[in-house]
Amino acid sequence: MHTSSKVGIIGGGVSGLYFAWLCHENKIPFTLLESTPRLGGALETSCNKNGVIELGAHTLYNTYEECLRWIEVLGLKICNKSSLPYRLKFGNEYQSFFKSFHWMEALGNMGAWWQWRRLKNKPLSIQEKFSVLFGKRNCQELIFPFFNALLNQDAEAFPADWVFKKRKKNKRYPRKFTLEGGLSTLVETVESKIKESVYLNSTPKNIAEKDGVYFLQTHAQSFAFSHLVLATPLDQTASYLKTILPHLSPYLEGFCSVQTLSVAVDSVRSPRFPVMSGAIAKDAPFRSFITNDTQKNSEDMRSCVFHFKNPTEPFPLETIQKALFLTEQKDIFVRQKKINTMPKITVENKKQIEILMEEIQKNATLFLCGNAYGGCGIEDCLMRSKKEFERFSRSLIKP
Ligand SMILES: Cc1cc2nc3c(=O)[nH]c(=O)nc-3n(C[C@H](O)[C@H](O)[C@H](O)COP(=O)(O)OP(=O)(O)OC[C@H]3O[C@@H](n4cnc5c(N)ncnc54)[C@H](O)[C@@H]3O)c2cc1C
User: Fold this and answer.
1) Of the residues 22, 31, 36, 165, which should be mutated to test ligand 1's pocket, given the most ligand atoms within 8 Å of the CB?
2) Residue 370 resides in a domain
3) How many other CB atoms are found less than 10 A from the CB of residue 3?
4) Which atom of ligand 1 is nearest to the CA of 42?
5) Each residue of 337-363: pLDDT tens digit?
6) 338 in the same domain as 280
7) Radius of gyration in angstroms for the set of CA atoms belonging to the chain, rounded to a whole number
8) What is the number of the ligand 1 atom nearest to the C-alpha of 203?
9) What's the CA-to-centroid distance between 326 and ligand 1, angstroms?
10) b/e for 304-315, b at 16 or more Cβ within 10 A?
11) Is 31's C-beta closer than 6 angstroms to any atom of ligand 1?
């Protein structure tokens, strides 16, 4: 059977969901195909009697203008996050960033600060930008582990300008916050409004374009769309582009997505384990963990999500035991696991993406959304979807 609607959206993470929402708001028929049994992608909350914890994205900021608009339209309740510190894990110690910072090294680099102004608008990597300022030791011990944790990859070559963006604060909201019930509330609320147009467990095996129509085949169904939105991870987008627009696929050649294994655990409280938002590790099998200490939680249990570097190896429970200062492994209860995906971007291959973003403008029926087109934060994803939706809307008006 051929199911036909105007626009087909592939990928039900926050990027695909926002495009779908904009279609819904503007009464444009659409079909959303998601390969897994659930929507949300990197937005997934785990709830149990020990409290709420996020397996992926966990924090929204008052600079997320598009996200705030969405939250307001959906009528969602926000929840302040108490400002507990993040710590650095050195061996078996947790230290504050402030105390771990090599101040003398940074002060010795003062002469380089004039370069900082000069470097401000250059397309530099995280390594190039920050080693000038803070010095080698600070970078190796603090700055790089911080970015590695933020971006879920070895991030030295990641473009610095894709990470920190100057955005206006909306002072009506706390600086950082989450949603009541966790970020999945956003996904579930949107899903309840668009569910007739959503197909879960649906992965297009191949996509072909003929006479301006996109033909897709999943294990169960065939679809035909006049417009197509790819809101899939970068490597998946690259493989679809190979058949749809082969002349553009070289721009995504060699790109890959990096995967992280995120493991949520409940554990018996250990008095030695300090209260904190989370920790960043340099020499451990995980890059970071996030606690639910910033939220209302259980009095005798604590919950954490560990983000492991290697998703293909079984995660070492012993590492978690040591990190939480527990004497016995039986005091850890594994709640839930999840594989998260992020794009691997470098200053070099970013240029290819920028060319692709320019080239795709010439096509009036294909749209690229996701976290690989200018930034990985939730707001970056929404802004990209909004921009592509505006291009899509213009293409509907044109004869
Ligand atoms: C651990 C972690 C913590 C983060 N923390 C924050 C944070 O605190 N704040 C913040 O702003 N950002 C954070 N981010 C970044 C942000 O959450 C992500 O960049 C964003 O959610 C990505 O959304 P997306 O829709 O582009 O991609 P994804 O969330 O990866 O969604 C892609 C979707 O496409 C589906 N899919 C894949 N292939 C196919 C296919 N062939 N057919 C159909 N469907 C397919 C996938 O199953 C998935 O549902 C974090 C990211 C991670 C991984």
Assistant:
1) 36
2) yes
3) 13
4) 29
5) 999 999 999 998 999 999 999 999 999
6) yes
7) 22
8) 42
9) 32
10) bbbbbbebeeeb
11) no
- Given a cut of 60, is residue 2 above it in pLDDT? no
H or E element that contains 27: none
pLDDT in tens, 164-221: 888 999 999 999 999 999 999 999 999 999 999 999 999 999 899 999 899 999 999 9
Residue 51 lies in a domain: no
The rounded mean pLDDT for the chain is: 92
Nearest to 392 by CA among 3, 9, 4: 9
Q: What is the CATH number of the domain that holds 376?
A: 3.50.50.60
State the Cα–Cα distance between residues 181 and 129, nearest whole angstrom. 38
**Can you give the pLDDT at residue 104?**
87
Separation CA 382–CA 13 (nearest Å): 11
Instruction: For ligand 1, atom 7, name the residue with the nearest CA.
Output: 57
Number of Cβ within 10 Å of residue 37's Cβ equals: 7
How many domains is the chain built from? Answer: 2
Atom of ligand 1 nearest to the CA of 371: 26
- How far apart CA 158 and CA 162 sit, in angstroms, is 8
- Together in a domain, 242 and 308: no
Per-position b or e across 64-84, b if 16+ CB within 10 A of its CB: bebbbebbeeeebebbebeee
Q: 30-33 and 198-199 as β-strands: parallel, antiparallel, unpaired?
A: parallel
CA torsion angle 239 244 245 250 (round to 10): 10
Q: Token pair of 257, please? A: 């997505």
Domain that holds residue 22: 2-42+183-255+345-397
Give the separation between CA 160 and CA 124, rounded to whole angstroms.
Answer: 6
Task: Judge if 246 and 349 occupy the same domain.
Answer: yes
